[in-house]
Amino acid sequence: MGEKTRSLYSEKAKQALESQPLQKGLTGLQDRFGKGAVKYWRNMEDPGKRDRVKKSRMESFAGLDTILAQLASNIRKRGGHVHFAGDGQEAIDCALEIARRNGVRSVVKGKSMLSMEINIDQALEQDGIEVVETDLGEYIVQLAQQQPSHIIAPCIHLDRNDIGELFAEKLGIDYTDDPPSLTMAARKALREKLLNADMGITGCNLACAETGHISLVSNEGNIRMATTMPKIHVAFMGMERVAPTFEEHRETLELLVRAATQQPLSTYVSFIGGPAGEDDPDGPEEFHLIIIDNGRSKILASPEFREVLACIRCGACLNVCPVYGKIGGHAYNSTYCGPIGAVITPLLSGVNEHADLCKGETLCGACLDVCPVKNDLPRMLSELRYTLAYGSNRWNVRQHNVRESYIFTGWQLVVTSSFIYRSLIRLARLIQRPFTSKKNGMVRTLGGLARGWTDTRDLQPIARQTFGEIWKEKYADTPETAGVAVHHAAGSEPDPGRQPQQPEPVARDYSENSVDPLPLLEILKENAANQNISVHSAASYTETVDIIVELVRTKDPEFSHNKHIVLHDHPDLNRLRLWKKFNREAVTVHTTFASDKEVRAKTGESFIGITAPSYCIAESATLVQLTSPGCPRSTSLVPSIHIAVVRKDNVVATLKDAYDLLGTKKIPDSFVFITGPSKTADIEAHLVHGAHGPRELHLIVVGEPALPDQGEESLAATGQQSKTDQ
Ligand code: SF4
């Protein structure tokens, strides 16, 4: 098995090097995300955050049993089900039992690496259940019957031509290599599946024990759909993916998103703490959280590898790794690839079987620099190599290669004794002479084991002098080298221009004292523009109505010819009396009343959804949308256009402010952060809006304060469910 995997690794690495689309995709990915992450950490306003999150992650492991019990208890209080699975098979059995009991025939999946780790798809399909991946990249690789090759860019190995041909064959559309057209074809095909599936399966990016929620990040909106539309939601969670407190959750979430895509926040961050409430008109009837061990306890018990569990699967280490940057994800032959895959795969699936992964990495340290939680992957890769060289009962590794261990023992002797090291260098200089070309001074051919090195390239000869010898010769007499303190006379200090320069962080003060309403709105507008959110300022609710009426009149429905709009049953929206505004147009206005069984259908036929989020966060242009019986999840998700009406006094400065405000009240079972319209860049990094959720997001900031009693007339009060003014 070990030999087989080893040869597979080399074979697939070779194939990857020859693949033009993959090489192009990897270069683009590393240029964009790799360099972006390095730059972000360098300029970070709060450099201590990475250490705080790492500390929090590591400390949480010490009390993981209590933290998980708290999470489970909070979810169960809301009517959710929490299951603990010792291994992948137990998790599969649990999910199958839920599916069979509910007569599930179709499953839509949101991207979940853990579900791939345990291979749930195969088990469901063997039970006759249709399984559809709904993340665009995952959907493409599923259609191509391949495996994802990156944590956040699963189809990086395919170019637009490959995808065009694939869609023409599998979806029956005319061939096109236009990323927006391909994305729209997938949107149409997947929408049917998402709206009609029996069960949604997702992972869990990070749970919060204190509040009893799992949280899921996505840009496309598929995960929101998969957790909203089917009647059953099953979430798989690795036992380590939990933050003890809401505050620790916030800091970890911020790092996760920054490291993954350098966004201030993903388009959607969904918080789910149970099934839909009794009066909620949408949301799943059953919510199951399956917390999976599958080898993690063993890692937790290993001081040398425990740190790897702090990983939050952002994918940043892949984006800077020189090895991954050449061989891509498939060579790792595992769910997890890149530097994190080279460490976690052997630990979860067998050190012997995946021996080549840790040997293939360069230990250059780029992954450590960029990891949001400063996971020391190079150290753990070295530990794995040590385990392989010297054997380990814990990891069931026999001493792999006795000869290799002798070689490294000898090497240790050489590099720790300057006498032996220098003597051998002198000897090597003599030995290399017959092999050195007179023409260019390079070593052209070597014999024996070393021949492989010179088969395809020349080798630099050992220099005539070592660095130490040159240094000694040139600087032996200077006071610095003699350990003497040097005081530079005025005017003779070292040239500051030659010191490494750190770019200055952009000064932006979000602290409470600095924020008055006007700059806050300006900051919001600036950030909203970056997120493709159209911001409209309305001095009053009368102006708000005018803006909405204009949008309804000028925009066209995407999926039908009829103009239906749907709005939350919320005091700020009811006071708009929108149902009275379309006197001459054929516009149907629906309101999402609690317990209305037809809300799903009405929302499905609406091309505009109007909501009144509780808060809007200026620093990231994020809407905080809470779920309640009259304010269901689908209104901001299913229609093609989302209009959010926010009062100016509900604009807060930072994500921390929003978390603090949420923490002061009873946190609802479900809520979502929305930062822009749905989007994807899965096809050759081409940004397209409207992957699954709304294609447009309009934010209306209203200057007028709330009514004192919030007791506006609503359609519910008038006894009308929906009204058509024609
Ligand atoms: S090891 Fe660090 S950089 Fe790599 S996926 Fe995990 S958290 Fe991200």
Structure in words:
- Helix 2 (about 20-45) crosses helix 12 (about 245-260), helix 3 (about 50-60) packs across helix 12 (about 245-260) and helix 15 (about 340-350) packs across helix 18.
- The chain has 4 domains: about 45-135 and about 200-310, NagB/RpiA/CoA transferase-like (Rossmann fold), CATH 3.40.50; about 135-195, no CATH class; about 415-460, no CATH class; about 515-725, Rossmann fold.
- Residues about 1-5, about 485-515 and about 710-720 have low confidence and may be disordered.
- The strands form 4 sheets. An 8-stranded mixed sheet has the order 8-5-6-9-19-16-15-18, with helices on both faces. Strands 11-22-17-14-12-13-23 form a 7-stranded mixed sheet. Strands 1-10-7-4-2-3 form a 6-stranded parallel sheet, sandwiched between helices.
- It is built from 28 helices and 23 strands.
- It is α/β, with parallel strands linked by helices and about 725 residues long.
- Bound molecules: iron/sulfur cluster (SF4).
- Iron/sulfur cluster (SF4) binds next to loops.
Q: In the CATH classification, which architecture of the largest domain applies?
A: 3-Layer(aba) Sandwich
By secondary-structure content and strand pairing, the structural class works out as alpha/beta
Taken from the alpha-carbon principal axes, the silhouette is elongated
Q: Can you tell me the CATH class of the largest domain?
A: Alpha Beta
For the largest beta-sheet, the strand count, sense and barrel status come to: 8 strands, mixed
Determine the CATH superfamily of the largest domain.
Answer: NagB/RpiA/CoA transferase-like
Could you estimate the helical fraction of the residues in percent?
40-55%
